[in-house]
Write a structure and sequence with these properties.
mainly alpha; 307 residues; Na+/H+ antiporter like fold
Length: 307
């Protein structure tokens, strides 16, 4: 239990230091609205796809295939449950606010928050399970999630989903893994360098938006607390219980719990900025949930590791 608390706590502290850098860059006018939106585009269309592909660059292991399929189905089920809960709970007449509350409740920070923890706690198998969860996350975020954040009258565009870089890279990554296609260093190294930016850049963006809003208001917005409660406590508790009852155990359960119990996804702020939603609220959700996850994530991970 103590080891999990320390591992998760240090990871969250690292994220907050990076958020602080973005905060001071915003206050010092080293970042502005235009530059942050360009950084957001780079994150969504270049860096995120690199993270996905890199996760699948490894030798094919037939024994892992069943586990990957179980994780994929579990990820889809968890997101479907989260969508149902968020839709029932948040019914505000303020469309921009409602969209952000729903999105922030549904999508967890399963990429740059969870994968480093899965690497430290479980190892390479945990990373592969985590990457599978991230792949399903991207499929849902770039289909249902985009439609949600765009608002009414914007149906799901199959063409946009198919040609989206993150979705394409999910399939590219699976092909590389299934056929054990070797990737030369001349490709892997630049890909890896870009993927490594998936942690610091989103935090700088969040820090910037935090510098433009009221820090105090992040802790006084009642609906933000409701969203955060669902995101880091209620949904993980239900998911872990159902997975356990379905026979999921060991490293697979631990990896899934890490992904599901992660705080609000930083892509909430990315999408809020891109689709002109309530960006300030998205920053509140990411900040508050990340802070409180220092307590909740270690508890869930420790319970999942119990024999």
């Amino acid at each position: 239990m103590l080891e999990s608390f320390l591992t998760v706590g240090l990871q969250v502290l690292t994220l907050f230091i990076l958020i602080a850098v973005g905060f001071f860059c915003g206050k010092g006018k080293m970042l502005d609205e235009h530059s942050v939106k360009k950084i957001t585009d780079i994150l969504l269309y270049i860096i995120a796809p690199c993270v996905i592909v890199r996760s699948f660059i490894r030798e094919f292991d037939p024994d892992m295939m069943i586990g990957i399929l179980i994780v994929a189905v579990s990820a889809i089920a968890v997101h479907a449950f989260s969508i149902a809960v968020a839709t029932l709970v948040f019914r505000s007449k303020d469309e921009g606010r409602k969209r952000v509350l729903r999105f922030g409740t549904i999508f967890s920070n399963c990429s740059f928050m969870s994968i480093p923890l899965q690497q430290q706690i479980i190892g390479n198998d945990g990373v592969l399970y985590g990457a599978t969860f991230v792949a399903m996350f991207n499929l849902i975020a770039w289909s249902y999630g985009v439609t949600l954040m765009q608002g009414r009258g914007k149906g799901i565009s199959v063409k946009k989903i198919i040609i989206n870089p993150s979705i394409i890279c999910v399939f590219v990554g699976m092909i590389i893994f299934l056929w054990s296609i070797p990737v030369h260093d001349i490709i892997y190294k630049p890909l890896s360098y870009l993927a490594d930016l998936n942690t610091p850049l989103p935090m700088l963006v969040i820090g910037y938006y935090l510098s433009k809003g009221s820090l105090k208001s992040a802790f006084t917005d009642k609906m933000a607390y409701v969203s955060v409660f669902l995101r880091i406590i209620a949904i993980p508790a239900v998911a872990m219980t159902v997975l356990y009852l379905c026979g999921v155990r060991g490293d697979m359960l631990t990896s899934l719990v890490i992904s599901v119990s992660a705080p609000t996804a930083s892509i909430t702020t990315m999408f809020s900025a891109k689709f002109d939603c309530d960006t300030e609220l998205s920053v509140k959700l990411v900040t508050l949930s990340t802070l409180l996850s220092m307590i909740t994530m270690p508890i869930f991970v420790s319970i999942a590791q119990l024999k």
